[in-house]
Amino acid sequence: MKKPVISLLLVLNSFLLFAQTKEELTIKEIYKSSLTNSKCYAWLDYLSNSIGARLSGSDNAEKAVQYTKSQLETLGFDRVYLQEMMVPKWVRGEKEIAYFLDNKTKVNIPVCALGGSIATPKSGLTAEVIEVKSINELEAWGDKIKGKIVFYNRPMEPEFIETFKAYGNCVDQRYAGAKEAAKLGAVGTIVRSMNLRLDDFPHTGNQSYGDLPKSQYIPTAAISTNAAELLSKTLKTNPKLKFYLKQSCQQMDDVVSYNVVGEIKGSVHPEKIMVVGGHLDSWDLADGSHDDGAGVVQSMEVANIFKNIGYKPKNTLRVVLFMNEENGGRGGDKYEELAQANKENHIFALESDSGGFSPRGFSIESNDAVFNKIVTWKSVFEPYLIHSFVKGHSGSDIAPLTSKSIIKAGLKPDSQRYFDYHHAANDTFDAVNKRELELGAATMAAMLYLMDQHYAVVEAK
């Protein structure tokens, strides 16, 4: 009786070793293809340097839609199509001006309007400044805020290794600062840029007036971290200094734009859909190479890799380039709306929206049982220095997806330098390293390959 059992075990072990070797060989092919035969860096070059900044509703955003659609059509998709939606159109206008007067000395300040802000009066806005570290501090000032400019000066906390945690802990002052200060009679707000280093780049980003009536809207802008340090220091010796701000931004009527979608029908389960994507729009101060040109071209590269190595997905694969993540999130909402209308079943979604730096792992949204199964893949990724598998937020564009058994993941690149560039004028093509970009694309393709092969096992209760 023992011999047949031993023989069976040997056969099973041989099969498992063969399967593991085949898997490892495929992933090796994926990385080799990305590092030797990729198109993502050239795509990013064109997106960044030939098109440029791609704020929703702009001419450049439309050019980016047409360019990426044309490139996807060269990759052998079964179909490439657009999903139409209405998006906000906010225009920055002339370059902003800011300075303060310290004992009659004029000190110029690097500044940029926050997305969605209103303009100052044409002659500009001049007022005294009240510095606070948080929105919660406003109430302590009470009536003293009336007629003043509120200066939010809470830095990103440097002790967090996960820099997105530091960002999340202070971004409320940018997003809701103007709304809360306006309720107390402030005439404007300025906010310290969301940046861990000291430099002269102001960082823009979206802000909201919430449910305030338009009559209570006040102009709001970001100043650089160096400027925030200087202004804070000067206020300690001259609390009555006057700050001047001039900006001419304007909110226009919504306009038509699109998500770009490329689809490869699954060879075994065409009814089960896997999504990989990034957002095509960017802020207007630079060409958005890290945020999120990198995620766009990495997602496109996944399809190019599969084409190069001859891999046919068992489940339907969609590359989705979402529009309007930065100032509205309407691309993700529209994709989910259409998915629900078409009764589609999404089993996996992967997003890249954390920059084109060296990949470190994945942030996964799933139940504990699924997460624990995915973590068993770590050994396959470790030769490529991919070691961080954590539970957490996957991505803003895929967040609306609600299929019953969907698993979501976000690519986790090394984040230490990301906020040096995020929403600033230095988020340009020269800040992206070709090899790091390609490694990220390969890591995404490897995860999609494994999920395509093993979803039934991973999802099984």
Task: For this entry, give a set of tags.
single chain; 461 residues; alpha/beta; Aminopeptidase; Glucose Oxidase, domain 1; eight-stranded mixed beta sheet; 14 helices; 37% helix; 24% strand
What does this structure look like?
With 461 residues, the protein is α/β, with parallel strands linked by helices. It folds into two domains: 265 residues, Aminopeptidase; 156 residues, Glucose Oxidase, domain 1. The chain is 37% helix and 24% strand. The protein contains 14 helices and 16 strands. The protein has an eight-stranded mixed β-sheet, with helices on both faces. It has an eight-stranded mixed β-sheet with strand order 3-2-9-5-6-7-8-4, sandwiched between helices. Helix 1 packs across helix 9 and helix 2 runs antiparallel to helix 9.
